[in-house]
Amino acid sequence: MLALPARYGRWVPILAPVTLILLFLHLNASLSTRKAQVILEPELKPTTNNETDSTIPEDTNTTPNPEPEPETPTSQPCRPLPGIENVLVIMKTGITEAQDKIPVHLRTTLRCIPHKLIVSDFEEEIAGIRTHDVFRNVSETLLTNSDFALYNRARAGGRDALTQSDMTKVANSAAGMPDNPGWKLDKWKFLPMIQEARAYRPDMQWYVFLEADTYPFWPNWLAWLDQFDSSEKLYLGNQMQIGDVIFAHGGSGFVLSHAALHAVAEYHAGQVDRWNYLTETQWAGDCILGMALGQVGVDLTWSWPHVTTQSVWEQDALGEAFGKMQWCYPALTFHHMTPADIDRLYEFDRRWFSNENNTFLLYSDIFRNFIRPMLADQLDNWSNFAKDEVKHEPENPTSEPESINQCAERCARTAGCLQYRMDADGKCYTSEWALRGLPSPGVWSGTMMWRVDAAIQKKGHCEEPMWVLE
Ligand SMILES: *[C@@H]1O[C@H](CO)[C@@H](O)[C@H](O)[C@H]1NC(C)=O
Ligand SMILES: *[C@@H]1O[C@H](CO)[C@@H](O)[C@H](O)[C@H]1NC(C)=O
Ligand SMILES: *[C@@H]1O[C@H](CO)[C@@H](O)[C@H](O)[C@H]1NC(C)=O
Ligand SMILES: *[C@@H]1O[C@H](CO)[C@@H](O)[C@H](O)[C@H]1NC(C)=O
């Protein structure tokens, strides 16, 4: 399913469920504590997943019985979230995805958020909230840029003006950028979004920026932000690098302090044309924003693993990357979450925090209580993204495809192997990760359950949460 192991993929969420996987260097995590994920060039994500409901397996044998809820989440009172009144949450979306992806947030993750702004390339009512047209103030000149064709069409003719190709999920070319109107428009939203946020609530301490496939855990966010001073210029997010620009990955979610937001908004307002020119020459809008912040002296606080590029199904909670182990860190977001994923995780989130003793939600808590119960010895049509190809012995280069049991045996014989996977062509892969994984036709996946349980035991419980603070 993926050109690169999922957890090293850098995914740009875009309008319509088209996504790109971006190629970048594999870094030796344990040796490189100060290296961002370097992005060399964008590449197509070779999948046609229908993202609205792709990650829930049909077979629920392996999942814990979800007890029927007497009440729907929307009928429940909001639990207190002290500090949320000082936060503006900005969710960025677009006309080609908003109706699929926004309603679920409004009934779950955004339901109890007092200050929220949905920015889009089209103003409309969605599930009772009005989206803000992020381009309402751009110049006539910029509107003649071909990237704005979709915007101009929608503004003139509304949703009826969308064409089939606007909704195209996968580009037809095998190389280069996808010919997707929503994607091309997306990079232009970042700086105007900063202006919209400032205009909407100039007095907030924190501005949290999310995308429509990003899942936020609010108690963790508030506990984290509480340790910073919003009058300092702060930019916190998942470190990425294009060329020599270090910036926060948009889909992972990032935050600007009051001081940082006002500084960059002021700066950008003074030279909009120049930044339009710079945006034209770049392909990643989150990178443009990082450049602008750099110009006003705001450096990124590297916040992995609080925020990551992956969904909850692709997290390696037992492992290590970028010199850090996720286990004792609170998770602040997951990315590439479908509406069905969001509903499901929200149920867990709600139950977890309904226990008065649970102040935070750590990666270890999620792994132990949400992921581990879904792991199974073997799953059909499923990929856990096991990454290490098992090579045949050179003196016996058999062309026979292996059986899944032989693949399992190879994992069993390999110290540290927790999962294995066999593709349709009989190639066997092993892995030291323990990932829930995603549906994948023709792929078998398996987990050494006892080893996973031993690893959980060995890691144990975290005395205190670990935080990225500088
Ligand atoms: C995606 O799948 C859902 C459920 O199977 C279906 O209702 C919807 O029409 C699909 N969307 C697209 C764009 O294929
Ligand atoms: C957009 O332009 C109007 C009119 O000039 C102005 O009042 C408003 O503040 C601008 N909004 C933003 C977000 O820049
Ligand atoms: C919270 O912890 C206390 C002390 O350990 C325990 O007595 C109580 O039952 C716990 N509450 C819940 C809801 O688990
Ligand atoms: C896996 O997918 C194939 C092809 O769609 C199907 O025939 C088979 O029944 C599936 N296996 C399971 C266990 O669902």
Keywords summarizing the entry:
Spore Coat Polysaccharide Biosynthesis Protein SpsA, Chain A, membrane, seven-stranded mixed sheet, five-stranded mixed sheet, Hepatocyte Growth Factor, 2 domains, globular, transmembrane, nucleotide-binding, binds 2-acetamido-2-deoxy-beta-D-glucopyranose, nucleotide binding, 13 helices, 470 residues, transferase, 27% helix, alpha+beta
CATH topology of the largest domain: Spore Coat Polysaccharide Biosynthesis Protein SpsA, Chain A
- Low-confidence spans: 1-32, 42-71, 170-177
Task: Specify the CATH architecture of the largest domain.
Answer: Alpha-Beta Complex
CATH class of the largest domain: Alpha Beta
Number of helical segments? 13
* Bound small-molecule species: 2-acetamido-2-deoxy-beta-D-glucopyranose
**Helical content (DSSP H or I, runs of 4+):** 25-40%
Radius of gyration: 22 Å
Structural class designation? alpha+beta
Q: Could you give the count of β-strands?
A: 23
Question: How large a portion of the residues is in β-strands, by DSSP E?
Answer: 15-25%
How many domain units? Answer: 2
How do the strands line up in the largest sheet? Answer: 8-5-4-9-14-11-15
Q: Sheet with the most strands?
A: 7 strands, mixed
Coarse morphology: globular
In round numbers, the mean pLDDT is 84
In whole angstroms, how far apart are the ends? 36 Å
